[in-house]
Amino acid sequence: MTNNTTRLDHVVLWVSDPVAAAGFYETAVGLEPLQVAEFAEGKVSFPSVRVNEETILDLAPRTLAERMRMLPGSADSAGHPVNHICLALPADAFDALRARLEERGVPVSDIDHGSSGARGDATRSFYFRDPDGNVFEARHYDD
After folding, report:
1. Which domains are assigned to the chain?
2. Between these two residues, 5 and 97, which has the higher pLDDT value?
3. Whole-model pTM?
């Protein structure tokens, strides 16, 4: 990893129950939870899950919104999820994610082919929602 290029560091998702959300992302999506125990003990404001060595998703409780004062109107962002977040995975991890979601009864879209993204056209992609309604796309590219 180098520190001299622009990268996505983190995305903050508003969630109703950060511990439950971390559990979903760990068991259904396969992401590593971070600081869940510390959050439950009141030592940190929110837990996170690791997407890769450079990127995390912060799982902010909606009750934290009232403390969002970095810009005028920041508190109003609670409950306004982004359109979707896309996770690019290797083909085997893509298949494993879809299987885990289906095993847990998480609705998934049909598989699409050729959707354009950061690395060109994806081989396959599909969408799902987390328990708080945040929409995710999973995709993989031929390497």
Report:
1. 1-80 (3.30.720.120), 81-143 (3.10.180.10)
2. 97
3. 0.79
pLDDT tens digit sequence for 56-77: 999 989 888 777 666 666 666 6
Task: Give the model confidence (pLDDT) of 83-96 as tens digits.
Answer: 789 999 999 999 99
DSSP 38: H
Both tokens of 93, joined, read: 């991890």
The amino acid at residue 142 is D
Query: Rounded to an integer, what distance in angstroms lies between the CA atom of residue 19 and that of residue 42?
Result: 12
For residue 85, list its beta bridge partners.
136
Show the tokens assigned to 62: 């909606």
φ, ψ dihedrals at 117, nearest 5°? -155, -165
- Residue identified by tokens 């109703």 is 16
